[in-house]
Amino acid sequence: MTALSDSETAPRGGPVPDSAFLKQLVAVIRAEDSHGTWDGKPDTELLAEFIVTPEERRAIPIICDPEPEVLWRMARFHDAVGLMIERRTGCTAAQMDKFHHEGFGRVVLISGRLVVVSRHLRDVHRWGFPTWVRLAEAGAALVDEAVALIERFPEAARA
Q: pLDDT digit string (tens) for 108-117?
């Protein structure tokens, strides 16, 4: 994924940064397209649903079950985090999540015997990022924190 040139119009969510995390997220999503349905779609179109503006967030009701598409996007986001962790450390980071139908729950990524990411999430119905930059930063921050933990406890991560 490359940053937009000045002549292109930025998509909803502002300018798209050139981010290793966004590239990994696109690769995760494209890997699930076994029939080539998304081959012709640009990366920004595949990731567009990860952007939820403040106005869109306010319009989403929170008194219903989280949409399956939202849970799918959350899983792909954390899959990309896990793959970036593996790329940087050589340690596999497997994702596990559990969400209540009221929209709260937990996501963990485990590497060996070490929990490298542990997140409690609320308002899953409204999960998303206001800008592309925030999406890229959120993924990169989780990866950086996990890598630091693996470097601090390498024996547990490799167990």
A: 999 999 999 9
Q: Is residue 7 part of a domain?
A: no
Concatenated DSSP letters of 34-56? TT-TTTTS-HHHHHGGGB--HHH
CATH code of the domain containing 114: 1.10.3100.20
DSSP code of residue 25: H
The total of structural domains in the chain comes to 1
Could you give the strand order of the β-sheet that contains 94-99, starting from the edge strand earlier in sequence? Answer: 94-99, 105-111, 114-121
Angle (CA) 8-12-14 rounded to 5° is: 65
- Tens-digit pLDDT profile for residues 32-90: 988 888 888 999 999 999 999 989 988 988 777 888 999 999 999 999 999 999 999 99
Q: Is pTM, for the whole model, over 0.70?
A: yes
